[in-house]
Each structure stands twice: as C-alpha cells, then as structure tokens.
Design brief:
Blueprint lengths: L2 E2 L4 E4 L3 E7 L9 E4 L3 E6 L2 E6 L10 E5 L2 E7 L16 H105 L7 E3 L5 E3 L2 E2 L31 H16 L18 H13 L3 H14 L4 H13 L3 H14 L8 H17 L3 H14 L4 H19 L3
Parallel strand pairs: 1-6
Antiparallel strand pairs: 2-3, 3-8, 4-5, 5-6, 7-8, 9-10, 10-11
Helix pairs in contact: 3-4, 3-5, 4-5, 5-6, 5-7, 6-7, 7-8, 8-9
Length: 416
Amino acid sequence: MPLIVTDYTWTQTDSTVFISVPLKGARAERVDFLSTEEYLKVHYPPYLFEAFLSEPVDEDRSTAKVGNGVAVITLPKCSNAFWEHLVITTYDKEKKKEVRERALLKYQERLCSESRSKAEKQQAEKKYALETMMKLEKEERDRIVKRKEDEREKTTAELAAWQLRQRETAETEAKLKLQDQRDRQNKLKTPTEKQEKGGSDGAKVKLDERGNSEAKGQKTPALLPAPRRAANIQVRFTPRVFQTALRESRVPEEEEWLQKQAEARRAGNADVEELKDLREEGRNPEWLKDKGDKCFASGDFLGAVNAYNLAIRLHSKIPALHSNRAACHLKLKNLHKAIEDASQALDLLTPAVPANAAARARASVRRGSAFCQLQLYAEGLQDYQAALKLDPHNAALQADTQTIRDILQVSATGTH
C-alpha cells in the first residue's frame, strides 16, 4: 500500500500551474511521472502523489524537473484564468477511478504511438543507411569498372604499339635480307661481265665445272654457304652411390647390397588375409616405420613395437625395422627379444659395405647393450668392439667399451 503525499505546494499564473512535490530522499531515476490533461501522478516507492485536476491542462507541453529533493511539475493551462482549486473537491471514488483509468489508457496509447514513431524512425534511418551503403558500393563498382576499362584501353594501346614495332622490325629485316641477296647476286655477276667484256686488263677468263671463274694467276672466291646454327647438348652423368677410390672399390658387394635392398622392398606380404582391410598407408612399411619412430621419440615404446610388428609382417627383409624394434625392446627390458631382433638386423645388413656401416654399428651396440644387461659382458664387448671399428671416433662408444673391459677385468681378477 503506497503512502499518499499530502505535503505538496502549488502556485499559478494566469497561464501556468507549478506544483512542488517533496521526494523524501528518493533518487531521480526512481521517480515515475504520468500526466494527462486532467490527471497527474508522481510515484516514487513507497510514496505516491496524484492529483485530479480541476481544469484541463496542455499535456504535450507539460514538464517535470527533479533536483534538490524536490520534483517541480510545470502544467500549462488550456485557458488563461486563475483556478480556485488545484484538484477537484469531490469524493466520488467511481469518478476518480474513471478519470484514472482514462488517463492510464491515454498514457498507454501515447506510449504505443511513441514506440511506433521510434520504430518508424529507426526503420527510416536503416533504410537511409542501406541506401547510402548501396550508393557507395555502386560508386565503388563504377570506379573499379572504369579503372578496368582504363587498364584495358592502356593494354590494348601498348599491344598495338608493340605489334606495330614488330611489323616495322620485320619489314626492316626483310629489306636488309633482300639487299644482302642483291649484293651477293651483284658479286656473282661481276666475273661473268668481265669475261664477256674481255676484262679491262686483257686477262683471259674461263669458268670451271663448278661455276668458279679463273683468271691468269688469280682465283675468284667461291660463294660459301651460311654457317650452321649452333646448339647446346645436355649431357648428364649418373653419380655413383658409393664414393670410394678405384683401388678400394668393392663394386660387387655394393651392387649385391643395392639389389638386396630393392628386393626387400619389392617382396611384401600384402596378400595376407587379415591385412587386406588396412588402409593404403597402413600397408606401406615406410609409413609404418615413420610412425614407429615418432612413437619411440614420444616415449610410447609399446606403440612403436606394434607399428614395427605390422611393418615386419608386411616386409620382413628390411633391416631398419628389426634394429628399431630391438631398441624398443631394450627400453621395455625385453632383453632376449632385443638380442633376437638385433641379430636379425645384422644378418640382413650383409654384405658389409660403407653404405650400411652406420646401421651395422647401431645394431651391434643394441645387441651388445642387451648382452651386458644380462651380465654377458664378453659377448657384449665383442659387439661394442665391432661397432667401434665402424665408428672409431665416437667418444661415447669408446667410453662404454672401456667400461665393459674394466668390468671383465675386475671379474677375472676377483678384485673390486
């Protein structure tokens, strides 16, 4: 239930009524005004001020200002006359209710009208903005079209000028060629004319079978054919795979190794029944090897073993697959499997040629490491020494080999 405000004040002139309503500490943004020609309401919860005006006012020119805790409402009168009372003196509730409802209905209609006007204004602004944008886009398109036309005309003019220059050049070359032919003909006619005239010096001239003129003690030069057109012939040489000196060459072994590598990649087991459902890359051993290498690098040793297993089932003659799987088994402590894979890799890495020296060294180290972890140091030392022969400048390999020697020496002497 709102609290009715009664401590308001009002003054008037012959044309305007001024009403001051105390806001009692209410903020300005919480004050709600409603004004029609016969009704005035100021609502700021929990307070309510309403006045049923005794005379009509101009609601379109009515204003309200809030400041210093007071709301001042200015109501222009419809007729210039002094009022005896601000509000009607009747206590008829039905009449007041009717006035209030009429004022609210009129206020709602005014709000709807303002909303429609605002929407129409926004629509008009959007339409204007759209038309302006379309106009700007049209101007931009016209500008681009004009630029294209200018470029086309410029290109056409340049092409016409180039064609004209080409024609002039061709005509000039044709004239020079014709003049050259005439000069040659004139040179050929000169000895014949001298023969017919007997020569100015009385020398006897005769023509041989080739048409060359011969004078006494003198020969006229024969007309030589034009020189042949020059051209370049590209010659390519296939480089040798193994860069070794001729006296140290091991060509038969190298060719055998290359042949074995080619056969290993051709001889696949892609017709195995359970492998037919694999995708195309899943049947490519190189792709599977790369996948296994990536799994190994990321620490997924089981995933790497699975990739190498499938690659070996497809192509079992590729040494790198067995050697890399041996490295995975070393990480997983499957030492016997590591020895088996490394041995298989070394068997496939034959004949021993410089091209597979690095692979043989890696396989030997992996097998030797597995032997040493099984405390079979003598076998491990043999593999490390074989790897050291292939890579004698590897400092880490030298240190590991010396460590194994020391362990064997301590075991032999029984000292610690």
